[in-house]
Amino acid sequence: MNEQEIAEMQNKIDQGILLAQERLIKRALHDNETLVVVRDGQVVEAKPEDL
Question: Where are the domains of the chain?
Fold first, then answer.
């Protein structure tokens, strides 16, 4: 793989991660659930509308 192919693959991976995060937040909103996230190095429970 050359550098351009690696950059393209990394871009696709990044887009996939962002899409998965969006879907997770939407599902948590729909199901009225909280999410566990890391903020400032600490694990905390957060409401999806705060994300």
Answer: 3-50
Task: Please name the amino acid found at residue 42.
Answer: Q
Query: Residue 24's beta-bridge partner residues?
Result: none
Contact 23, 35 (CB under 8 A): no
Spatial neighbors of 37 by CB under 8 A, at least 6 apart, are 43, 44, 46, 51
Placement of tokens 């599902």 in the chain: 27
pLDDT one-digit tens code per residue, 18-43: 999 999 999 999 999 999 999 999 99
Look up the pTM and report it. Answer: 0.80
Report the Cα–Cα distance between both ends of the chain, in Å, rounded: 36
